[in-house]
Design goal:
This protein has 448 residues and is of the alpha/beta class. Helices cover 24% and strands 27% of the residues. The chain folds into three domains: 176 residues, FAD/NAD(P)-binding domain (3-Layer(bba) Sandwich); 115 residues, FAD/NAD(P)-binding domain (3-Layer(bba) Sandwich); 114 residues, 2-Layer Sandwich (Enolase-like, domain 1), CATH 3.30.390.30. The strands form six sheets. Strands 1, 2, 3, 4, 5, 6 and 17 form a seven-stranded mixed β-sheet that branches. The chain has a five-stranded parallel β-sheet with strand order 8-15-9-10-11, covered by helices on one side.
Protein backbone atom coordinates (compact mmCIF):
# COMPACT_ATOMS: atom_id res chain seq x y z
CA UNK A 1 0.00 0.00 0.00
CA UNK A 2 1.26 3.47 -0.87
CA UNK A 3 0.29 6.82 0.62
CA UNK A 4 1.55 10.38 0.56
CA UNK A 5 1.67 13.15 3.13
CA UNK A 6 3.14 16.59 3.49
CA UNK A 7 4.52 16.12 7.00
CA UNK A 8 5.38 12.75 8.51
CA UNK A 9 6.28 12.46 12.19
CA UNK A 10 7.85 9.25 13.51
CA UNK A 11 7.24 8.76 17.23
CA UNK A 12 4.23 9.53 19.40
CA UNK A 13 5.64 10.62 22.74
CA UNK A 14 6.25 14.23 23.85
CA UNK A 15 8.37 15.37 20.89
CA UNK A 16 6.29 13.58 18.27
CA UNK A 17 2.99 14.85 19.64
CA UNK A 18 4.15 18.46 19.86
CA UNK A 19 5.84 18.36 16.45
CA UNK A 20 2.66 17.07 14.80
CA UNK A 21 0.36 19.53 16.59
CA UNK A 22 2.64 22.50 15.93
CA UNK A 23 3.03 21.56 12.27
CA UNK A 24 -0.73 21.25 11.75
CA UNK A 25 -1.46 24.45 13.73
CA UNK A 26 1.01 26.53 11.72
CA UNK A 27 0.60 24.92 8.30
CA UNK A 28 -3.12 24.25 8.21
CA UNK A 29 -3.19 23.35 4.53
CA UNK A 30 -0.63 20.56 5.00
CA UNK A 31 -1.49 16.94 5.63
CA UNK A 32 0.21 15.74 8.82
CA UNK A 33 0.58 12.06 9.68
CA UNK A 34 2.03 10.71 12.93
CA UNK A 35 3.27 7.11 13.08
CA UNK A 36 3.83 5.53 16.48
CA UNK A 37 4.37 2.02 17.81
CA UNK A 38 1.99 2.30 20.76
CA UNK A 39 -1.80 2.26 20.78
CA UNK A 40 -1.64 4.19 24.05
CA UNK A 41 1.14 6.69 24.78
CA UNK A 42 2.40 7.27 28.28
CA UNK A 43 2.95 10.72 29.81
CA UNK A 44 6.74 10.35 30.27
CA UNK A 45 7.23 12.19 33.55
CA UNK A 46 4.19 10.55 35.13
CA UNK A 47 5.47 6.98 34.71
CA UNK A 48 6.98 6.56 38.22
CA UNK A 49 3.66 7.55 39.77
CA UNK A 50 1.76 4.60 38.29
CA UNK A 51 3.57 2.43 40.84
CA UNK A 52 1.95 4.21 43.79
CA UNK A 53 -0.16 7.32 43.51
CA UNK A 54 -1.86 6.56 40.17
CA UNK A 55 -2.08 2.77 40.65
CA UNK A 56 -2.17 1.95 36.93
CA UNK A 57 -0.96 3.15 33.53
CA UNK A 58 -4.52 3.98 32.44
CA UNK A 59 -4.33 7.06 34.66
CA UNK A 60 -1.18 8.24 32.86
CA UNK A 61 -2.20 8.23 29.20
CA UNK A 62 -1.30 11.08 26.85
CA UNK A 63 -4.65 11.95 25.22
CA UNK A 64 -5.03 11.96 21.43
CA UNK A 65 -7.72 14.65 21.44
CA UNK A 66 -5.34 17.51 20.67
CA UNK A 67 -3.99 15.69 17.61
CA UNK A 68 -7.35 14.51 16.29
CA UNK A 69 -9.10 17.83 16.81
CA UNK A 70 -6.46 19.54 14.68
CA UNK A 71 -6.78 16.95 11.93
CA UNK A 72 -3.55 15.01 12.48
CA UNK A 73 -3.82 11.44 11.22
CA UNK A 74 -2.49 8.81 13.66
CA UNK A 75 -1.17 5.46 12.44
CA UNK A 76 -0.16 2.72 14.90
CA UNK A 77 2.69 1.05 13.05
CA UNK A 78 6.48 0.75 13.09
CA UNK A 79 8.71 2.52 10.57
CA UNK A 80 11.35 0.03 9.43
CA UNK A 81 13.26 2.06 6.83
CA UNK A 82 13.69 5.63 5.61
CA UNK A 83 14.80 6.36 2.05
CA UNK A 84 15.96 9.97 2.36
CA UNK A 85 16.76 10.21 -1.38
CA UNK A 86 13.27 9.27 -2.57
CA UNK A 87 11.66 10.62 0.62
CA UNK A 88 9.76 7.42 1.38
CA UNK A 89 9.27 5.52 4.66
CA UNK A 90 8.42 1.82 4.87
CA UNK A 91 6.57 0.29 7.80
CA UNK A 92 6.19 -3.16 9.35
CA UNK A 93 2.62 -3.41 8.03
CA UNK A 94 3.83 -3.03 4.43
CA UNK A 95 2.89 0.62 4.02
CA UNK A 96 5.05 2.91 1.89
CA UNK A 97 4.43 6.54 2.75
CA UNK A 98 5.98 9.37 0.78
CA UNK A 99 6.68 12.59 2.64
CA UNK A 100 7.60 16.17 1.84
CA UNK A 101 9.00 16.88 5.32
CA UNK A 102 9.99 14.33 7.96
CA UNK A 103 10.42 14.71 11.75
CA UNK A 104 12.21 11.89 13.56
CA UNK A 105 11.11 11.75 17.21
CA UNK A 106 11.98 8.17 18.11
CA UNK A 107 12.87 8.96 21.72
CA UNK A 108 15.00 6.80 23.99
CA UNK A 109 15.09 3.46 25.76
CA UNK A 110 16.28 2.41 29.23
CA UNK A 111 19.91 1.45 29.57
CA UNK A 112 20.62 -2.17 30.50
CA UNK A 113 24.44 -2.32 30.55
CA UNK A 114 26.11 -5.30 28.87
CA UNK A 115 28.65 -5.56 31.70
CA UNK A 116 26.00 -6.11 34.37
CA UNK A 117 25.96 -9.80 35.26
CA UNK A 118 22.47 -11.07 36.04
CA UNK A 119 20.67 -8.33 34.15
CA UNK A 120 18.50 -10.89 32.33
CA UNK A 121 17.33 -12.78 35.41
CA UNK A 122 13.61 -12.97 36.08
CA UNK A 123 12.31 -9.97 38.04
CA UNK A 124 14.92 -7.54 36.73
CA UNK A 125 12.97 -4.60 35.31
CA UNK A 126 13.57 -1.35 33.48
CA UNK A 127 11.23 1.63 33.08
CA UNK A 128 10.36 2.09 29.39
CA UNK A 129 7.50 4.18 27.96
CA UNK A 130 5.50 1.03 27.21
CA UNK A 131 2.17 0.80 29.01
CA UNK A 132 1.75 -2.94 28.46
CA UNK A 133 5.16 -3.74 29.95
CA UNK A 134 4.57 -1.28 32.78
CA UNK A 135 1.20 -2.84 33.62
CA UNK A 136 2.88 -6.24 33.94
CA UNK A 137 5.66 -5.05 36.23
CA UNK A 138 3.25 -2.92 38.31
CA UNK A 139 1.33 -6.10 39.09
CA UNK A 140 4.49 -8.10 39.76
CA UNK A 141 6.11 -5.47 41.98
CA UNK A 142 2.99 -5.30 44.15
CA UNK A 143 3.58 -8.93 45.18
CA UNK A 144 7.14 -8.36 46.42
CA UNK A 145 8.32 -7.39 49.89
CA UNK A 146 11.84 -6.19 48.99
CA UNK A 147 12.85 -4.22 45.88
CA UNK A 148 16.26 -2.78 44.99
CA UNK A 149 16.29 0.30 42.76
CA UNK A 150 19.62 0.89 41.02
CA UNK A 151 20.38 4.52 40.22
CA UNK A 152 19.20 7.58 42.14
CA UNK A 153 18.47 10.02 39.37
CA UNK A 154 14.96 11.47 39.12
CA UNK A 155 13.31 8.24 37.92
CA UNK A 156 15.03 6.15 40.58
CA UNK A 157 14.14 8.55 43.39
CA UNK A 158 10.51 8.90 42.32
CA UNK A 159 10.16 5.14 41.77
CA UNK A 160 11.57 4.45 45.24
CA UNK A 161 9.21 6.91 46.90
CA UNK A 162 6.19 5.50 45.07
CA UNK A 163 7.01 1.84 45.81
CA UNK A 164 7.57 2.81 49.44
CA UNK A 165 3.95 4.03 49.54
CA UNK A 166 2.87 0.43 48.87
CA UNK A 167 4.68 -0.78 52.01
CA UNK A 168 7.45 -2.36 49.96
CA UNK A 169 10.90 -2.25 51.55
CA UNK A 170 12.92 -0.26 49.03
CA UNK A 171 16.71 -0.05 48.83
CA UNK A 172 17.86 2.80 46.59
CA UNK A 173 21.47 2.29 45.47
CA UNK A 174 23.56 5.13 44.03
CA UNK A 175 27.27 5.09 43.15
CA UNK A 176 27.65 8.87 43.68
CA UNK A 177 28.08 10.32 47.19
CA UNK A 178 24.47 11.57 47.17
CA UNK A 179 21.21 10.97 45.35
CA UNK A 180 20.37 13.34 42.47
CA UNK A 181 24.09 14.18 42.44
CA UNK A 182 24.25 14.91 38.70
CA UNK A 183 21.49 17.53 38.98
CA UNK A 184 21.98 19.21 42.36
CA UNK A 185 24.86 20.50 44.42
CA UNK A 186 25.55 18.66 47.66
CA UNK A 187 23.82 21.23 49.88
CA UNK A 188 20.54 20.65 48.02
CA UNK A 189 20.93 16.90 47.42
CA UNK A 190 21.44 16.09 51.12
CA UNK A 191 18.04 17.59 51.95
CA UNK A 192 16.34 15.36 49.36
CA UNK A 193 18.29 12.37 50.61
CA UNK A 194 17.26 12.90 54.23
CA UNK A 195 13.60 13.36 53.28
CA UNK A 196 13.64 10.05 51.43
CA UNK A 197 15.23 8.30 54.39
CA UNK A 198 12.68 9.86 56.75
CA UNK A 199 9.91 8.45 54.57
CA UNK A 200 11.28 4.92 54.98
CA UNK A 201 13.46 4.33 51.93
CA UNK A 202 16.86 2.74 52.59
CA UNK A 203 19.30 5.00 50.75
CA UNK A 204 22.73 3.53 49.98
CA UNK A 205 25.19 5.97 48.42
CA UNK A 206 28.81 5.69 47.37
CA UNK A 207 28.31 2.09 46.24
CA UNK A 208 27.52 0.78 42.78
CA UNK A 209 25.98 -2.51 41.77
CA UNK A 210 28.49 -5.19 40.79
CA UNK A 211 26.23 -8.14 40.09
CA UNK A 212 22.60 -9.26 40.26
CA UNK A 213 22.53 -12.72 41.84
CA UNK A 214 20.10 -15.59 41.64
CA UNK A 215 19.29 -18.89 39.96
CA UNK A 216 16.76 -18.14 37.24
CA UNK A 217 15.34 -15.22 39.17
CA UNK A 218 16.67 -12.48 41.42
CA UNK A 219 17.62 -13.33 44.99
CA UNK A 220 20.17 -10.62 45.89
CA UNK A 221 22.46 -7.90 44.61
CA UNK A 222 26.20 -7.65 45.17
CA UNK A 223 27.52 -4.12 45.69
CA UNK A 224 30.95 -2.75 44.89
CA UNK A 225 31.78 -2.47 48.60
CA UNK A 226 31.17 -6.19 49.08
CA UNK A 227 27.73 -5.96 50.67
CA UNK A 228 25.06 -8.41 49.58
CA UNK A 229 21.44 -7.27 49.79
CA UNK A 230 18.64 -9.80 49.59
CA UNK A 231 15.85 -8.65 47.28
CA UNK A 232 12.86 -10.03 45.39
CA UNK A 233 13.25 -7.72 42.38
CA UNK A 234 15.59 -5.16 40.84
CA UNK A 235 14.55 -2.00 39.02
CA UNK A 236 17.31 -0.63 36.80
CA UNK A 237 17.25 3.15 36.62
CA UNK A 238 20.67 3.63 35.07
CA UNK A 239 19.87 6.20 32.43
CA UNK A 240 18.45 6.11 28.90
CA UNK A 241 19.94 5.69 25.44
CA UNK A 242 18.71 7.50 22.29
CA UNK A 243 16.76 5.43 19.76
CA UNK A 244 18.77 6.16 16.62
CA UNK A 245 19.04 2.80 14.84
CA UNK A 246 16.47 3.76 12.20
CA UNK A 247 18.15 7.10 11.53
CA UNK A 248 21.63 5.58 11.42
CA UNK A 249 20.58 2.87 8.96
CA UNK A 250 19.10 5.62 6.79
CA UNK A 251 22.44 7.43 6.48
CA UNK A 252 21.55 10.20 8.90
CA UNK A 253 24.60 11.37 10.85
CA UNK A 254 25.03 10.44 14.51
CA UNK A 255 27.34 12.27 16.93
CA UNK A 256 29.97 10.78 19.26
CA UNK A 257 27.49 10.49 22.11
CA UNK A 258 25.00 8.53 20.00
CA UNK A 259 22.48 11.26 19.14
CA UNK A 260 21.22 12.42 15.74
CA UNK A 261 23.22 15.46 14.67
CA UNK A 262 21.03 18.53 14.20
CA UNK A 263 21.58 22.25 13.71
CA UNK A 264 19.88 25.02 15.69
CA UNK A 265 16.78 24.64 13.52
CA UNK A 266 16.73 20.89 14.31
CA UNK A 267 17.66 19.93 10.72
CA UNK A 268 19.65 16.74 10.08
CA UNK A 269 22.14 16.24 7.25
CA UNK A 270 19.37 14.68 5.12
CA UNK A 271 17.29 17.06 3.02
CA UNK A 272 13.96 18.00 4.64
CA UNK A 273 14.53 15.67 7.58
CA UNK A 274 14.37 17.07 11.13
CA UNK A 275 14.91 15.38 14.51
CA UNK A 276 13.69 16.35 17.98
CA UNK A 277 13.46 14.96 21.48
CA UNK A 278 15.58 12.35 23.24
CA UNK A 279 17.02 11.01 19.97
CA UNK A 280 18.32 14.43 18.84
CA UNK A 281 21.65 16.06 19.62
CA UNK A 282 21.81 18.44 22.57
CA UNK A 283 24.23 21.25 23.37
CA UNK A 284 24.50 22.92 26.73
CA UNK A 285 23.07 26.44 26.80
CA UNK A 286 25.96 27.89 28.82
CA UNK A 287 28.93 26.04 27.33
CA UNK A 288 27.73 24.91 23.87
CA UNK A 289 29.30 21.51 24.60
CA UNK A 290 27.52 18.29 23.61
CA UNK A 291 25.08 17.26 26.32
CA UNK A 292 23.03 14.16 27.08
CA UNK A 293 20.01 15.83 28.69
CA UNK A 294 16.75 13.92 28.17
CA UNK A 295 13.67 15.77 29.35
CA UNK A 296 10.11 15.88 28.06
CA UNK A 297 10.14 19.67 28.46
CA UNK A 298 13.29 19.94 26.34
CA UNK A 299 11.80 17.54 23.79
CA UNK A 300 8.68 19.70 23.48
CA UNK A 301 10.75 22.87 22.99
CA UNK A 302 12.80 21.18 20.26
CA UNK A 303 9.68 19.81 18.60
CA UNK A 304 8.12 23.28 18.42
CA UNK A 305 11.29 24.71 16.86
CA UNK A 306 11.52 21.86 14.34
CA UNK A 307 7.85 22.13 13.31
CA UNK A 308 7.92 25.92 13.02
CA UNK A 309 10.89 25.68 10.67
CA UNK A 310 9.57 22.89 8.43
CA UNK A 311 8.67 25.16 5.51
CA UNK A 312 10.25 28.49 6.37
CA UNK A 313 13.46 28.84 8.32
CA UNK A 314 13.27 31.68 10.83
CA UNK A 315 16.33 33.20 12.48
CA UNK A 316 14.30 33.87 15.62
CA UNK A 317 13.03 30.29 15.89
CA UNK A 318 16.22 28.60 17.01
CA UNK A 319 17.01 26.10 19.72
CA UNK A 320 19.92 27.76 21.48
CA UNK A 321 20.92 24.88 23.71
CA UNK A 322 19.46 22.91 26.57
CA UNK A 323 19.33 24.65 29.94
CA UNK A 324 18.46 21.51 31.86
CA UNK A 325 15.42 22.37 33.98
CA UNK A 326 14.51 19.59 36.41
CA UNK A 327 12.11 19.27 39.30
CA UNK A 328 10.88 16.50 41.54
CA UNK A 329 8.84 16.05 44.69
CA UNK A 330 9.41 13.99 47.83
CA UNK A 331 6.33 14.13 50.03
CA UNK A 332 5.23 17.75 50.21
CA UNK A 333 8.73 19.10 49.47
CA UNK A 334 9.70 19.97 45.91
CA UNK A 335 13.20 20.34 44.50
CA UNK A 336 14.08 22.17 41.29
CA UNK A 337 17.21 23.11 39.38
CA UNK A 338 17.88 25.08 36.20
CA UNK A 339 21.14 25.67 34.36
CA UNK A 340 24.56 25.17 35.88
CA UNK A 341 25.11 23.92 39.40
CA UNK A 342 27.98 25.24 41.47
CA UNK A 343 29.95 22.06 40.78
CA UNK A 344 29.33 22.22 37.01
CA UNK A 345 30.26 25.91 36.84
CA UNK A 346 33.49 25.16 38.68
CA UNK A 347 34.36 22.26 36.36
CA UNK A 348 33.79 24.45 33.30
CA UNK A 349 36.08 27.15 34.67
CA UNK A 350 33.50 29.88 35.21
CA UNK A 351 34.42 32.70 37.58
CA UNK A 352 31.24 32.80 39.66
CA UNK A 353 29.65 33.67 42.97
CA UNK A 354 26.61 32.22 44.71
CA UNK A 355 23.72 33.71 46.63
CA UNK A 356 21.29 31.81 48.82
CA UNK A 357 18.21 32.75 50.81
CA UNK A 358 15.71 30.72 52.79
CA UNK A 359 12.27 32.06 53.60
CA UNK A 360 8.63 30.95 53.68
CA UNK A 361 6.25 30.69 50.72
CA UNK A 362 3.40 32.47 52.56
CA UNK A 363 3.10 35.71 54.49
CA UNK A 364 2.52 35.67 57.38
CA UNK A 365 4.32 32.37 57.85
CA UNK A 366 1.47 30.70 59.73
CA UNK A 367 -1.01 31.15 56.89
CA UNK A 368 -2.40 28.37 54.66
CA UNK A 369 0.07 25.46 54.96
CA UNK A 370 3.36 27.36 54.76
CA UNK A 371 6.51 25.69 53.51
CA UNK A 372 10.18 26.56 53.65
CA UNK A 373 11.34 28.12 50.38
CA UNK A 374 15.04 28.24 49.56
CA UNK A 375 16.60 29.71 46.41
CA UNK A 376 20.26 29.39 45.43
CA UNK A 377 21.71 31.32 42.48
CA UNK A 378 24.92 30.72 40.51
CA UNK A 379 26.09 34.04 39.04
CA UNK A 380 28.92 35.05 36.71
CA UNK A 381 31.30 37.26 38.69
CA UNK A 382 32.36 39.17 35.56
CA UNK A 383 28.96 40.38 34.40
CA UNK A 384 26.42 39.30 36.97
CA UNK A 385 24.64 37.01 34.50
CA UNK A 386 22.60 34.22 36.08
CA UNK A 387 24.13 30.85 35.12
CA UNK A 388 21.94 28.56 37.19
CA UNK A 389 19.89 28.13 40.30
CA UNK A 390 18.17 25.67 42.62
CA UNK A 391 14.93 25.74 44.58
CA UNK A 392 13.59 23.86 47.59
CA UNK A 393 10.00 24.56 48.57
CA UNK A 394 6.39 23.55 48.48
CA UNK A 395 4.30 22.87 45.40
CA UNK A 396 5.12 26.31 43.94
CA UNK A 397 8.81 25.35 43.61
CA UNK A 398 8.24 23.83 40.16
CA UNK A 399 7.03 27.09 38.68
CA UNK A 400 9.74 29.07 40.48
CA UNK A 401 12.26 26.72 38.84
CA UNK A 402 10.72 27.57 35.47
CA UNK A 403 11.20 31.26 36.26
CA UNK A 404 14.90 30.52 36.77
CA UNK A 405 14.90 28.92 33.34
CA UNK A 406 13.42 32.05 31.77
CA UNK A 407 16.03 34.20 33.52
CA UNK A 408 18.87 32.02 32.22
CA UNK A 409 17.54 31.79 28.66
CA UNK A 410 17.00 35.54 28.62
CA UNK A 411 20.61 36.11 29.72
CA UNK A 412 19.33 38.19 32.62
CA UNK A 413 21.61 39.42 35.37
CA UNK A 414 21.52 40.08 39.08
CA UNK A 415 20.91 43.75 38.24
CA UNK A 416 17.74 42.76 36.35
CA UNK A 417 16.50 40.78 39.35
CA UNK A 418 17.24 43.52 41.86
CA UNK A 419 14.93 45.93 40.01
CA UNK A 420 12.35 43.28 39.03
CA UNK A 421 8.69 43.90 39.78
CA UNK A 422 6.78 40.97 41.27
CA UNK A 423 3.23 40.24 42.30
CA UNK A 424 2.64 38.72 45.72
CA UNK A 425 -0.38 37.53 47.70
CA UNK A 426 -0.37 36.26 51.30
CA UNK A 427 -1.86 32.83 50.56
CA UNK A 428 0.09 32.26 47.34
CA UNK A 429 3.61 33.66 47.67
CA UNK A 430 6.40 34.74 49.95
CA UNK A 431 6.41 38.28 51.26
CA UNK A 432 7.40 41.04 48.80
CA UNK A 433 9.95 42.12 51.42
CA UNK A 434 11.49 38.65 51.57
CA UNK A 435 10.89 37.16 48.14
CA UNK A 436 13.54 34.37 47.97
CA UNK A 437 14.49 34.91 44.32
CA UNK A 438 15.28 38.59 44.88
CA UNK A 439 16.82 38.03 48.31
CA UNK A 440 19.14 35.39 46.82
CA UNK A 441 20.10 37.96 44.17
CA UNK A 442 20.91 40.45 46.94
CA UNK A 443 23.08 37.84 48.64
CA UNK A 444 24.92 37.12 45.37
CA UNK A 445 25.36 40.84 44.65
CA UNK A 446 27.33 41.22 47.88
CA UNK A 447 29.88 38.75 46.52
CA UNK A 448 30.38 40.36 43.10
Amino acid sequence: MKEKTDVLVIGGSAAGLVAAMTAKSNYKDKKVVLIRKEEKVMIPCGIPYIFGTLESSDSNILPDGGLLNLGVEIKVDTVTAINTEDKICKTASGLEIAYDRLVIATGSQPSKPDWLKGKDLENVFTIPKDNKYLDVITEKLSTFKNVAVIGAGFIGVEMSDELNKRDIKVSLIEKEPHILALAFDEDIAVDAEQLLRDRGVEVITGASIKEIQGKGKVSSVLLSDGRVLETDAVVLSMGYLPNVTLAKESGIHINEKGFIIVDEFLRTNAKDVFAAGDCAEKRDFATSKLATTMLASTACAEARVAALNLYKISTVRKFKGTIGIYSTCIGDTAFGVAGLTEEAASKEGFNFVTGKFTGVDRHPGKLNNPHKQCVKLIVSKECGRILGGSVIGGMSAGELTNVLGFLIQGSMSIADLLVAQIGTQPMLTASPAAYPLIKAAEAAAKNL
